[in-house]
Specification:
Elements (H helix, E strand, L loop, with lengths): L12 H10 L9 E5 L9 H5 L5 E6 L8 E2 L14 E7 L8 H11 E12 L17 H7 L4 E7 L5 E7 L14 E3 L4 E3 L4 H32 L2
Parallel strand pairs: 1-2, 1-4, 2-3, 4-5
Antiparallel strand pairs: 5-7, 6-7, 8-9
């Protein structure tokens, strides 16, 4: 069972449109595509990309399900895939859920071939907490620009439907990876900018958050019962 229960995020209509608009046929046809966080709950770019006839498409996630071909945690991606093997790496609605985002970013950058493309969608500050299974971070446009400044950013925009950011970037032929060890992000776990999230931080948040979630559920149920009984 997930550590926290909340809103399950889908690849929404704007996410799908961003992928459809920004992924070109020549970037996919005959190429190697890897999708990380591939479990299809309510929407996926996979059908859109597979219609462009890649050489291969591998969906990676931490559990079995629709869209998942291979079980692998994003933190250990390079233990399962060799460096510089991917032409296109897709990750939708994953990055807020990875505890050590620096490791995952580095894995993404290194698994791509020179000239390879990364396409990411993730959530920004103001989006509700959604623990599936955990929810650690929020990314703004400025964060994504800084994190991916060692790539060539081809497209970056805010999600028009909900707080979030979409990115398409290309790995340069000559690549030197950014040092992100001191870069801070906003975390809903700590409600501030921070370098890391510890187990103690998670335990403290759980103690505070779960009672609020329970009381909110009671209030919602009471409101629904009242409307049904009294029509208001």
């Amino acid at each position: 069972m997930p550590l926290f229960q909340g809103v399950i995020v889908m690849c929404n209509a704007a996410c799908l449109e961003f992928g459809r608009t920004n992924i070109r046929e020549e970037e996919v046809r005959g190429k190697t595509v890897i999708e990380v966080g591939a479990l299809d709950i309510n929407g996926s770019l996979r059908q859109i990309v597979e219609a462009l006839r890649p050489k291969s498409y591998v969906g990676v996630d931490i559990q079995k399900g629709p869209g998942v071909d291979y079980i692998c945690d994003a933190h250990s991606l390079l233990n399962h895939f060799a460096k510089e093997t991917g032409d296109l790496l897709i990750s939708t609605e994953l990055f807020e859920h990875v505890r050590d985002w620096r490791v995952v970013v580095s894995n993404f950058k290194n698994i791509l071939k020179p000239g390879g493309i990364v396409l990411i969608t993730t959530r920004s500050r103001g989006f509700p907490f959604h623990g599936y299974p955990c929810d650690y971070w929020r990314y703004e446009l400025s964060d994504m620009q800084a994190i991916w400044s060692d790539f060539i950013i081809e497209s970056i925009e805010s999600d028009p439907l909900a707080p979030g950011v979409f990115l398409k970037a290309r790995k340069p032929k000559t690549f030197t990876e950014n040092d992100l060890t001191r870069y801070t992000l906003y975390s809903p776990i700590k409600n501030k900018l921070t370098l890391t999230i510890t187990a103690a931080d998670i335990d403290k948040f759980r103690l505070c958050y779960m009672p609020r979630l329970f009381l909110s559920g009671i209030a919602t149920a009471f409101s629904l019962i009242t409307k049904k009984l009294f029509g208001r």
